[in-house]
Every structure is written in C-alpha cells, then in structure tokens.
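Task: sequence design from structure.
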C-alpha cells in the first residue's frame, strides 16, 4: 500500500498512515525507512532523513495522538491532555526550512523532528481552528481515514473518490444490478 495524501491536512495524512484501524490494521510506518520515505512523499523534506527506532516510536506516538484528537473533534468529545501535550511538544520544534533554490525551485530541508513539527503544526492549526468542525471519517468499509470535508454542501462521504468512493459506488451499482437481474 502506497502513501496517500487525500485528507486535506498534513496532520490527518500522518494519522492516515494506519489503514483499517478497526479491522486488519495496515501500518504504513512499520520501519524507520518507511517513515523516512513518508517525509519525502509528504513534501516535508527533499531527502529522506536519518530515522532511528526511537524516532519511529516518537512519530507513531504523534500519529496516534493526532488521530485521537481529530476523532474527538469529529465527535464533539473532549481532547485528552496527554494527547494535546504530545502534539504541542512536537509542534514546538522548529519546522523544516524552505527556501527558493538557485534553479527557482522550492527546497525543503531539516531532520526528522523538523518534518514531524511541520505535520504537528498543521494538526494544531486544524484542531484549534474552525475547520475542526469539518473533520469526517470515510464511510467506506473498512476505511477509517479522517479528512476535511471542504465540499460545497459538506456532504462528502469518502476520503478519496478515486479509491474508496469509486469502490463504494461500484458495489452499489452491482447490488442494484443484482436485484434487477
């Protein structure tokens, strides 16, 4: 399974590196190398940073705190103090640096903690702002990805139309065809 970035927020995309949370969990950050690849795929860094097992544990702790906080925001529940502390501690670190390169291109640099800080800051801005009310969970079974519903009527049902939405619509079509046939 490849990384996907369809949540509308980098913090939610980090939380989305666990697939199918309530069934057969798929962990896309199983190794330090996976986490290093994610930082580049997420556009946080241009080159993969050094990542230790301790760094991976830190990232997973942050990922799970973001997921629980976003889930609480979605359901109207309270934020747990321990999760808020994990998020705030990660956001305190200086974020990845960006600069305009000589080839008129965007360059991103930093270590793993800088990359995690950037993701944590995105989550802080989401959870502390008005878009927190727009957090939804994908309705496609067994997907559990959280996303921001920025659709015009706020009726988006799936995390991604090309994946979950397409599968759900195809299944509904097959069910209708079977009933008629």
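Answer:
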């Amino acid at each position: 399974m490849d990384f996907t970035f369809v949540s509308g927020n980098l913090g939610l995309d980090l939380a989305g590196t666990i697939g199918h949370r309530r069934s057969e969990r798929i962990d896309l950050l199983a190794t330090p190398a996976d986490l290093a690849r994610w930082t580049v795929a997420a556009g946080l860094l241009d080159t993969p940073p050094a990542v230790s097992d301790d760094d991976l544990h830190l990232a997973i702790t942050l990922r799970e705190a973001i997921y629980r906080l976003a889930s609480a925001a979605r359901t109207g529940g309270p934020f747990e103090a321990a999760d808020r502390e994990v998020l705030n501690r990660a956001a305190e670190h200086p974020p990845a640096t960006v600069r305009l390169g000589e080839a008129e291109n965007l360059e991103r640099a930093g270590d793993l903690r800088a990359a995690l800080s950037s993701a944590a800051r995105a989550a802080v801005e989401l959870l502390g702002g008005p878009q927190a009310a727009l957090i939804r969970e994908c309705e496609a079974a067994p997907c559990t990805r959280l996303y921001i519903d920025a659709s015009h009527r706020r009726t988006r049902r799936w995390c991604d139309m090309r994946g979950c939405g397409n599968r759900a619509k195809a299944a509904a079509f097959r069910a209708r065809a079977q009933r008629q046939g």
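The helical segments are 10-15, 32-41, 53-75, 81-92, 112-127, 161-180.
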